[in-house]
Design a protein that fits this description.
The complex is a heterodimer of chains A (683) and B (155). By secondary structure, chain A is an alpha+beta fold. Among the domains of chain A are: 151 residues; 106 residues; 32 residues, no CATH class. Chain A contains 20 helices and ten strands. In chain A, a hairpin with a 4-residue loop joins strand 6 and strand 7. In chain A, helix 2 packs across helix 6, helix 10 runs antiparallel to helix 11 and helix 11 runs antiparallel to helix 12. The radius of gyration of chain A is 27 Å and the shape is globular. Chain B folds into two domains: 89 residues, Helicase, Ruva Protein, domain 3 (Orthogonal Bundle); 35 residues. The longest helix of chain B has 28 residues. The chains are: A alpha+beta (683), B mainly alpha (155). The interface between A and B is large, with 69 and 55 residues.
Chain lengths: 683, 155
């Protein structure tokens, strides 16, 4: 099987090289007026075949893992015989080489979909396909020459493997990396379309219509990936938190921030023909930041607790990044006249300005995180010694920026396009501002003292702003719903559903904003975290907040994969029993590494988060660490709301679906080049 | 507009001054200092959050910190003593001195610079708005403007 995998990778490299060079040649010939359609078609088909070859290689690696083929070095280092099958499957993305193969597989899958749907716009898709082939070529070169997943073990083949990192042996780890990679890789598609449209000076905003859903799906995957990672950290790492500002976490945040900015600013281009250069560079930056993040975390330039650091492939990514930047700059300078805005901003108090400032805030946050991640390197270079840039820096810099962003989330939807009058501003903002101020007063009544502690101040600000934003969202739904109700005779709730179905993008967007609000409320709870650590012998008890934990027993078990020590704790809240908890510590035999199994009693008010921190060998008592983390469940609930909102925003609106397709052709299609097909609304 | 300016200035002032607030009190001091330092075992975790099994550093460092908070008069002296023993990487964030200060200034400088540039650009554009085109009452021209209005207001 390893031979088959290696061959499949070489074959994929040849096919993607053909797809790239033949595609480029076909486009060149078309540009000079001597089109060669068969050549273009073979390039497209080679791109499709690349997927089959890469999928074959990925299959070979998974097959080797499932069949314990320890002659393959990667399988030897990342699996063992007693590893459960789902984790053997997850071995595909558990190490450097496998994850790069997985990246290539996802990229070729996106390419497959794009090439199969080429009739959406034949010429633009041909450009995008060729650009994607170039990206694919890079990853296949890497897989064939720098990080080969099918390297064979020299000498005697061990009877068993080293096992999978215990931290990765958790159900969420089976889906967290794929989600994250789907997000990273997915941004290659809008990038390819944007660059293609710039190269061919594509008229109109059609590339945006085509890539809108790609971008939203990708953004949603990346969001899910980030929060699955946070949930995994919370459930597995056992330090009581969900976000540690580690460089790998930061790297996933860079493209998310610029991608979010792109999703907003692109509306200005669609609606008013503005910010064309800005949007093109936003999507270029988003893709480049995906690559930069990979470079940072795999080159060892910055230290990370994640496993990929310190490898030789960083240099490859650096050069790739340099080439992408050079290509983007070259075509931008050559074709920048094509990106002239059709309109200009007319007022500071307008929807356009709020989008612009929101974009600035997102980019400022992205810069702050990138700056903090790179500052240790800069400091070492200039001062000769490294400094640590940890959570205190990121929290202090990003929290005020996030507050401003939240405020804009509330303000933006209430501003009119072009210009807003002070009278309308006053009318629209009265209720949301009252909601925000009332929330602040109520919180202070419940004992929040913003003048005593910065964390309390920010928490109060966040929840008050969340109330303000919620009020603006509700008022938007109610206002629109009332109009529909008046015209159709529906009740208000049904009218709001109709309203959402008529403009799924706008109201889906509001639901996404509401999801963000719920997440922010969850994050704000961190200001009130409590923690306590204590040795807990038989029938001894510890008290934290309203909870009493009594140690009923502590014991040890053994199975072929690991040994486990755990405590059995009876838990009481205000004297009433609420159940038993079993915090544990596993010790994996193959990898000789320990792992924490957190016991968590989660409610909408707070999490009682209990860790078995180890055993004091002098007293033979387990050490129990307990946290009370308020409102954490809101974070995970907010993510579900956010996903729901994204799905709603992607559904075609009913008004558009009711119109015959012939009437949905946009006027801009009249200017489309030969061979291109009109795109349907919502695509 | 004046009201808007005053309001935004007040909000910004409060936000920035509160961001400089710190925790106070004896118990809070240990927690505060413990969260301003990293465990140096290589786990990349805040000192008081290190849960690295068998960590040979965090317990010792916590005990040192506890002793120091009872002994030393200023937080600065305690932090400096740790820097002397464990190196500059023991601090969880750059200091507010020398080159490290740039780490703190840059993000806000970029944000403020970007915002000011955007405000200036918008004002500049606003003052150079072209005169509104005269509408000729032909059906085709009106349809064109209706289509533009529909497109620009549908979101």
């Amino acid at each position: 099987m390893p031979q088959f995998g290696s061959f499949a990778l070489i074959f994929a490299l040849v096919l993607s090289a053909y797809c790239f060079f033949a595609g480029m040649l076909a486009l060149r010939r078309q540009a000079v007026g001597i089109p060669n359609y068969p050549l273009a078609e073979t390039a497209r088909r080679a791109g499709i075949a690349t997927w089959a070859a890469v999928a074959g290689a990925a299959f070979a690696l998974v097959w080797s893992a499932i069949n314990n083929d320890f002659s393959v070095a990667y399988i030897l280092h990342h699996t063992n015989r007693d590893l459960p099958t789902p984790y053997k499957f997850a071995a595909l993305w558990s190490g450097q080489e496998g994850s790069l193969l997985f990246w290539a597989l996802l990229l070729s899958t996106y390419g497959l979909v794009l090439r199969l749907r080429y009739k959406v716009d034949v010429k633009l898709t041909a450009y995008a396909s060729t650009i994607l082939a170039a990206v694919q070529l890079f990853f296949l070169l890497l897989l064939n020459f720098a990080a080969t997943p099918f390297s064979l073990v020299r000498g005697n083949i061990p009877a068993d493997g080293n096992g999978l990192n215990p931290l990765l042996q958790y159900p969420e780890m089976v889906i967290h990396p794929p989600m994250l990679y789907l997000g990273y890789v997915g941004f290659a598609v809008p990038f390819a379309f944007a660059l293609g449209a710039l190269i061919m000076k594509y008229p109109g905003e059609k590339w945006i219509h085509i890539t809108r859903r790609w971008t939203m799906v990708t953004w949603c995957f990346l969001t899910c990936g980030i929060f699955l990672g946070a949930h995994w950290a919370y459930s597995v790492l056992g330090w009581g938190g969900y976000w540690g500002w580690d460089p790998v976490e930061n790297a996933s945040f860079f493209p998310w921030l610029t991608g979010t900015a792109f999703l907003h600013s692109v509306m200005m281009q669609e609606k008013r023909g503005m910010l064309k250069t800005w949007n093109v560079w936003l999507i270029f930056s988003t893709f480049m930041l995906s690559i930069l993040g990979t470079f940072l975390t795999r080159s060892g330039v910055v230290s990370s607790v994640h496993a990929f650091a310190q490898s030789s492939i960083g240099e490859w990514f650096m050069w790739f990044l340099a080439v992408i930047l050079a290509v983007c700059l070259y075509f931008y300078i050559r074709n920048r006249d094509h990106l002239r805005s059709e309109h200009r901003l007319e007022s500071l108090l307008s929807r356009e300005s709020s989008f612009l400032f929101q974009n600035l805030v997102l980019l400022a946050s992205c810069f702050a995180i990138l700056w903090g991640t790179l500052f240790p390197v800069l400091s070492e270079w200039i001062q000769g010694h490294k400094v640590t840039v940890g959570p205190p820096f990121f929290n202090r810099v990003n929290v005020p920026i996030a507050m401003f962003l939240l405020l804009l989330t509330g303000v933006g939807p209430l501003l009119a396009w072009r210009s807003t009058s002070w009278a309308s501003l006053k009318r629209n903002f009265t209720i949301p501002v009252i909601a925000g101020v009332a929330t602040a007063i109520i919180l202070m009544g419940f004992g929040v003292r913003p003048w005593e502690d910065a964390a309390h101040f920010y928490s109060l600000m966040a929840i008050s702003l969340a109330a303000l934003v919620t009020a603006t969202i509700v008022s938007e739904f109610v206002r629109g719903g009332r109009v529909i109700a008046r015209h159709t005779g529906q009740n208000l709730l049904a009218a709001m559903v109709t309203l959402t179905r008529r403009n799924t993008r706008r109201y889906g967007g509001y639901i996404v904003h509401f999801g963000v609000v719920v997440i922010v409320i969850g994050l704000a709870g961190a200001a009130f975290n409590q923690q306590k650590e204590q040795e807990l012998g038989f029938h001894e008890q510890m008290q934290i907040g309203p909870y009493t934990l009594v140690c009923d027993n502590y014991t040890q078990e053994d199975n072929p994969n690991y040994t486990i020590e755990y405590a059995i704790l009876n838990v009481y809240k205000n004297g009433k029993p609420i159940g038993q908890m079993f915090p544990a510590k596993k010790f994996f035999k193959a990898s000789q590494q320990p792992d924490t199994i957190v016991a968590n009693h989660s409610t909408p008010i707070e999490d009682l988060y209990v860790i078995y921190a180890g055993k004091n060998f002098d007293s033979d008592k387990p050490i129990i660490k307990v946290f009370i983390n308020p409102l954490v469940m809101w974070i995970w609930a907010g993510v579900w709301v956010l996903i729901f909102g994204t799905v709603v925003a992607m559904v075609p609106p009913i008004s558009a679906a009711a119109v015959p397709s012939a009437q949905r052709v946009r006027p801009a299609t009249a200017a489309l080049p030969v061979n291109s097909q009109p795109v349907e609304a919502g695509d | 507009m004046k009201l808007f300016r005053r309001l935004s200035t007040s909000i910004l002032t409060v936000v920035f001054s509160v961001s400089l607030l710190g925790a106070s009190g004896d118990h809070a001091r240990f927690a505060d200092l413990g969260h301003r330092m990293m465990c140096v075992c290589g786990c990349n975790q805040i000192l008081l959050e290190c849960n690295h099994v068998g960590c040979t550093y965090s317990d010792r460092m916590r005990q040192q910190l506890m002793a120091a908070t009872q002994r030393e008069s200023s937080d600065d002296n305690i932090l400096q003593a740790f820097v002397k023993e464990y190196g500059t990487t023991v601090l969880a964030a750059p200091t507010m001195r020398g080159f490290d200060k740039i780490a703190w200034i840059m993000p806000f400088a970029v944000f403020l610079g970007g915002s000011l540039t955007a405000v200036m650009v918008i004002r500049n554009w606003k003052h150079r708005q072209p005169a509104l085109p005269t509408l000729h009452g032909t059906g085709q021209a009106l349809d064109q403007y209706r289509e533009q209005a529909r497109r620009e207001t549908s979101l």
